[in-house]
């Protein structure tokens, strides 16, 4: 079939089963948008900023497990998208991002809207391509999807000059890929797995350290099996929320900088860390030399470069975590769950000593209450996205997650402005679930134009703005570590969020009391429209516990015990 | 695990593509690794090139370098050996008024010779182990070399 490069892009997307593309047109990508106009194989969602297109594709991918697709033009279209690429790269999200480029004859001439896109994206993508001949397009598109979703997933960027999208060539997508240099290792070494299982059987205080890789590998239910049959307690990273259900007795909680006391103490006291799809990020480990100091480490990861990068692995296992956990389950008889009874008790005692909680306030709503309350009212029926900051940590701490892919957040890069567009992508992927975005008065303004996208496409995202009139997380650090010098974090001058939502055709609610909040959430869910629920919360609330940056996990700042009145 | 910086030679077999070299050098600069020298040339009758990178770092850093290089999509293989046969070439430009037979004798001691003579200068070359090239370059100083160029090391595992 002889077709243009632009048509090849459309044909390939349809062949890959893509049902939603997020994007924004412009000069260099116009040939492709002309073909989008003519086709009905997938829907196109027009975001109002290219950064939002990539975040929406990320949200779509995280919620569905499929490859997310975004399309943008050259120059500023591409540079706007770079934050999204970097975000997806840090969190290992499979994306294919297609950008237009100036025609081949103009490359290198500082042409209008020209930028060295692949030069910029090289350091924030898993792989990238500049396509100089339409003959290469079928192979490049097929490779891009394959590379994005296999191994350690990640974003792949394809830059296509305008004349290449106009070039007419033979199209055949039914081709064998021959990637001699890219062969991800998915099967764990049986000898290493056996050694690891022997180590687990011998350990007295083993601890599962569950990471986001489990969700990427669709291995949460296998991991639940392994945790339950071994009776070994588990801590989750922020990225792994939902691998175990919140009410699982073996789930100790989230660990790290804002992890629970019990989780961080368990990690400090364990004699065997069983890391599954986790990468020992600095926000998790705190001071490395004190991290799980007396423990051996089993590290299962698809990415060999993650193993022994920060913490030396005594039992390195390179492989897909689903395969490896299945292999572990096959020899789980070795492990006697009764052996860990006193260890489980120790951890329970930690939790009783300093449970994860907060103090209510009679005057103002506490932000943590809002997260908890949404959990009580919507629970499993909602998918939760977040922006970045205090509200993000409270969401991770207090929402009762019940399943993988329920929690969508910018974890590695920490991108303010991620939440709203991501929640649009989440809703597009899982329309049967309520799409909630927990956000702050700082973050929401960083992609607030997405109100227009959501309203236009009738994508009912409910944004719950925890408004403390502060850039809260930075304010918290300033309060604690900069002698209360709140430099440029007071956000008292604000838009009227209710009117703002209304100006775009959404609904806005301003809420001061718990009763008002319940009524607003109920109304927004029932009306099924794009909503802002602005909750006026306690201004100076801090996220606790907290491990100060670079400190040891066991040296936590804790919630002050409430004085008896 | 020792944290001492060690000199290491890493060989990389990489697909001949427009961006392969920059992917590798970007990786070094982006992750803060050192490049002491780098040579690259296509492998005859194949679609691959071979890079020889002289670098330094702790054992952990060197391990990360090889793993991160492996992770690049167009990289086929990474060799990192302590025991490599290494050679490097150097060329020097010397004024004509120096003693040419002495210079030639010195070059011969380092697998080299005078390869070009012009109106005012001669060019000599040597090819030897990088350490010996160092020695040669300090020995040649007395003949007032005007320009020196080193190729960077190439290496093969034994």
Characterization of this structure:
The complex is a heterodimer of chains A (565) and B (158). In chain A, 37% of the residues lie in helices and 17% in strands. With 565 residues, chain A is an alpha/beta fold. In chain A, strands 3-2-4-5-7-6 form a 6-stranded parallel beta sheet, with helices on both faces. In chain A, strand 12 (272-276), helix 12 and strand 13 form a beta-alpha-beta unit. The model of chain A has no long low-confidence stretch (mean pLDDT 97). In chain B, the strands form 2 sheets. In chain B, strands 5, 6, 7, 8 and 9 form a 5-stranded antiparallel beta sheet that branches. Chain B is built from 4 helices and 9 strands. Chain B is elongated. Chain B folds into 2 domains: 6-82, ACT domain (Alpha-Beta Plaits, 2-Layer Sandwich), CATH 3.30.70; 85-157, ACT-like. Chain A, domain 2 (Alpha-Beta Plaits, 2-Layer Sandwich), CATH 3.30.70. The interface between A and B is medium-sized, with 19 and 20 residues.
Summarize the structure.
Chain A is an alpha/beta fold and 565 residues long.
């Amino acid at each position: 079939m002889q077709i243009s490069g632009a048509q090849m892009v459309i044909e390939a997307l349809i062949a890959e089963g893509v049902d939603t593309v997020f994007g924004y047109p412009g000069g260099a990508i116009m040939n492709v948008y002309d073909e989008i106009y003519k086709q009905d194989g997938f829907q196109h969602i027009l975001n109002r900023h290219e950064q939002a297109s990539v975040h929406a594709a990320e949200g779509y991918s995280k919620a569905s497990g499929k490859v997310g697709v975004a399309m943008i033009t050259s120059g500023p279209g591409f540079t706007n998208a770079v934050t999204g690429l970097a975000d997806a790269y840090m969190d290992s999200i499979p994306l294919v991002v297609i950008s237009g480029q100036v025609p081949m004859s103009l490359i290198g001439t500082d042409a209008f809207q020209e930028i060295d896109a692949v030069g910029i994206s090289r350091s924030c993508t898993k792989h990238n391509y500049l396509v100089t001949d339409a003959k290469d397009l079928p192979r490049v598109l097929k490779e891009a999807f394959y590379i994005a979703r296999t191994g350690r997933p990640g974003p792949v960027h394809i830059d296509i000059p305008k004349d290449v999208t106009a070039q007419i060539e033979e199209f055949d997508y039914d081709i064998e890929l021959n990637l001699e240099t890219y062969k991800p290792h998915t099967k764990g070494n049986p000898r290493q797995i056996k050694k690891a299982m022997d180590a687990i059987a011998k350990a007295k205080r083993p601890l599962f350290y569950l990471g986001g890789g489990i969700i990427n590998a669709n291995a949460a239910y296998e991991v639940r099996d392994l945790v339950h049959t071994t009776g070994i307690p588990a801590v989750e990273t922020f990225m792994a929320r939902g691998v175990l259900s919140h009410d699982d007795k073996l789930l100790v909680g989230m660990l790290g900088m804002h992890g629970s006391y019990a989780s961080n103490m368990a990690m400090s006291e364990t004699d065997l860390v069983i890391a599954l799809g986790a990468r020992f990020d600095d926000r998790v480990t705190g001071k490395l030399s004190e991290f799980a100091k007396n423990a051996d480490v089993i590290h299962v990861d698809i990415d060999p470069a993650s193993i022994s990068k920060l913490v030396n692995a005594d039992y390195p296992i390179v492989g897909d975590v689903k395969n490896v956990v299945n292999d572990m389950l096959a020899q789980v008889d070795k492990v006697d769950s009764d052996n860990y009874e006193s260890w489980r008790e120790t951890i329970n005692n930690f939790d009783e000593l300093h449970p994860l909680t907060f103090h209510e306030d009679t005057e103002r709503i506490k932000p943590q209450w809002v997260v908890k309350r949404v959990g009580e009212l919507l629970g499993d029926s909602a998918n939760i996205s977040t922006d970045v900051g205090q509200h993000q940590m409270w969401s991770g701490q207090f929402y009762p997650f019940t399943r993988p892919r329920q929690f969508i957040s910018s974890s590695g890069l920490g991108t303010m402005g991620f939440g709203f567009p991501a929640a649009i992508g989440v809703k597009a992927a899982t329309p049967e679930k309520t799409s909630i975005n927990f956000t702050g008065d700082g973050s929401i303004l960083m992609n607030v134009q997405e109100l227009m996208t959501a309203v236009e496409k009738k994508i009912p995202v409910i944004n719950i703005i925890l408004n403390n009139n502060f850039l809260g997380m930075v304010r918290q650090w300033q309060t604690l570590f900069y002698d209360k010098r709140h430099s440029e974090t007071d956000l008292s001058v604000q838009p009227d969020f209710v009117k703002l939502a209304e100006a775009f055709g959404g609904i806005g609610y301003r809420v001061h009391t718990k009763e008002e909040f319940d009524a607003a959430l109920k109304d927004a869910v029932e009306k099924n429209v794009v909503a802002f629920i602005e909750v006026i919360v306690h201004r100076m609330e801090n996220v606790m516990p907290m491990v100060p940056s670079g400190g040891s996990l066991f040296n936590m700042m804790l919630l002050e015990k409430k004085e008896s009145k | 695990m020792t944290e001492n910086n060690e000199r290491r030679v890493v060989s990389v077999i990489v697909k001949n593509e427009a961006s392969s070299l920059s992917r590798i050098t970007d990786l070094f600069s982006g992750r803060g690794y050192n490049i002491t020298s780098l040579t690259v040339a296509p492998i005859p009758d194949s679609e691959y090139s071979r890079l020889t990178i002289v670098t330094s770092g702790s054992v952990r850093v060197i391990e990360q370098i090889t793993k991160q290089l492996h992770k690049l999509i167009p990289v086929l293989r990474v060799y990192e050996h302590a025991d490599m046969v290494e050679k490097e070439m150097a060329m020097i430009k010397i004024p004509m008024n120096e003693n040419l037979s002495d210079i030639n004798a010195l070059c011969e001691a380092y697998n080299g010779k005078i390869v070009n003579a012009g109106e005012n200068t001669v060019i000599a070359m040597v090819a030897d182990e990088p350490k010996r090239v160092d020695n040669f370059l300090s020995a040649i100083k007395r003949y007032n070399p005007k320009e020196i160029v080193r190729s960077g090391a190439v290496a093969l595992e034994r």
